[in-house]
């Protein structure tokens, strides 16, 4: 049932209803009258277009999600908040049913219930997008089903799955950040990450140093010009094959350091190293390589002369 009867632009009544996109369009003038169409029919069902009378499968509830141990399809025997509304007999029944529900659950379900709660905590700490959290939950679920968690700590596999999901969606997060959020050593996360991706056959491309520029520049409070120049320096460095075999965070931080010097926004190597999570030696080495190979020392000297 729709309340729109004519076009408010041309007054025409030749309207087209696109149920897939939820739009009402006027065929005369092309105006999109409604782009968030709500259907008020109580028993509305849509059938397949071939006329076979089969339901199309739409509007069948919330979508499945890997971030819940039962993928959002299971049921739960009440919540503890419901206890205040129950009598003494009902409370005994409530606890009995919950106990049996726990007993009949499988070991994988119990593992997922604990692990996905930890995954959500770490994801919230790192402020990761929902798509990364969903991808990490799917990777961890596959790892549990394949028996890859056996002999390893649950937290390390969760962190490895999150790092793999970040790499697949090109969300710049370092192993140091994951180590801080999860409390697991950086080497253990890296070892578990490599093991899980190898066993599950997950292909992950090398990290792009340019993905880290925006985060580092924001933390260092650098201008947009410095950020753009850093990306330009990185592109030249990639063409000169200076990025191969080097950590993406180190080369990205060094590019920002050079760019800040060119634009007169002086930052110390210690400040840049702290933001990037690398050592001052790494910044210094990458900085010298960029100056020697890309001849950037001339631009820095020009900036110094202008300031004088």
The proportion of strand residues reads under 5%
How much helix is in the residues? 40-55%
Structural class: mainly alpha
Calculate the mean pLDDT score and round it.
Answer: 80
Spell the H/E element sequence: EEEHHHHHHHHHHHH
Care to describe what's here?
With 308 residues, the protein is mainly alpha-helical. The chain has three domains: 1-60, Single Sheet (N-terminal domain of TfIIb), CATH 2.20.25; 72-205, Cyclin A, domain 1; 209-307, Cyclin-like (Cyclin A, domain 1, Orthogonal Bundle), CATH 1.10.472. 53% of the residues lie in helices and 4% in strands. It is built from twelve helices and three strands, in the order E-E-E-H-H-H-H-H-H-H-H-H-H-H-H. A three-stranded antiparallel beta sheet has the order 1-2-3, with no helix packed on it. A hairpin with a 4-residue loop joins strand 1 and strand 2. Helix 2 (107-126) runs antiparallel to helix 3 (130-145), helix 2 (107-126) packs across helix 4 (154-168) and helix 5 packs across helix 6 (186-200). The longest helix has 20 residues, at 107-126. The protein is flat, with a radius of gyration of 28 Å. The termini are far apart.
Q: What is this structure's SSE topology?
A:
Blueprint: E1 15-18, E2 23-26, E3 32-34, H1 88-104, H2 107-126, H3 130-145, H4 154-168, H5 175-182, H6 186-200, H7 213-220, H8 224-239, H9 248-262, H10 269-276, H11 280-294, H12 297-307
Antiparallel strand pairs: 1-2, 2-3
Helix pairs in contact: 2-3, 2-4, 3-4, 4-5, 4-6, 5-6, 8-9, 9-10, 9-11, 10-11
């Amino acid at each position: 049932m729709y309340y729109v009867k004519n076009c408010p632009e041309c007054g025409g009544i030749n309207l087209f209803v696109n149920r897939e996109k939820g739009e009402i369009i006027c065929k005369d003038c092309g105006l999109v009258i409604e782009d968030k169409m709500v259907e008020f029919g109580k028993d509305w069902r849509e059938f397949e277009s071939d006329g076979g009378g089969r339901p199309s499968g739409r509007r069948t509830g919330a979508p499945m999600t890997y971030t819940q141990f039962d993928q959002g399809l299971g049921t739960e025997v009440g919540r503890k908040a419901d206890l205040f509304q129950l009598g003494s007999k009902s409370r005994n029944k409530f606890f009995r049913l919950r106990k049996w529900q726990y007993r009949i659950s499988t070991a994988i379900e119990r593992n997922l219930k604990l692990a996905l709660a930890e995954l959500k905590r770490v994801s919230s700490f790192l402020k990761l997008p929902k798509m990364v959290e969903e991808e990490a939950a799917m990777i961890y679920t596959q790892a549990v089903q394949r028996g890859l968690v056996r002999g390893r700590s649950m937290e390390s596999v969760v962190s490895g799955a999150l790092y793999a999901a970040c790499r697949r969606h090109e969300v710049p997060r370092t192993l140091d950040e994951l180590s801080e959020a999860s409390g697991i050593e950086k080497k253990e996360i890296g070892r578990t990450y490599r093991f899980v991706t190898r066993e599950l056959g997950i292909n992950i491309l090398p990290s792009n140093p340019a993905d880290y520029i925006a985060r580092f520049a924001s933390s260092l409070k650098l201008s947009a010009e410095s950020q753009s120049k850093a990306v330009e320096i990185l592109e030249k460095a990639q063409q000169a094959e200076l990025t191969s075999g080097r950590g993406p965070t180190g080369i990205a931080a060094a590019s920002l350091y050079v760019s800040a010097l060119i634009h007169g926004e002086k930052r110390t190597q210690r400040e840049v190293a702290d933001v990037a999570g690398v050592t001052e030696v790494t910044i210094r080495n990458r900085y010298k390589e960029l100056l020697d190979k890309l001849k950037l020392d001339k631009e820095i000297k020009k900036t110094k002369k202008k300031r004088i």
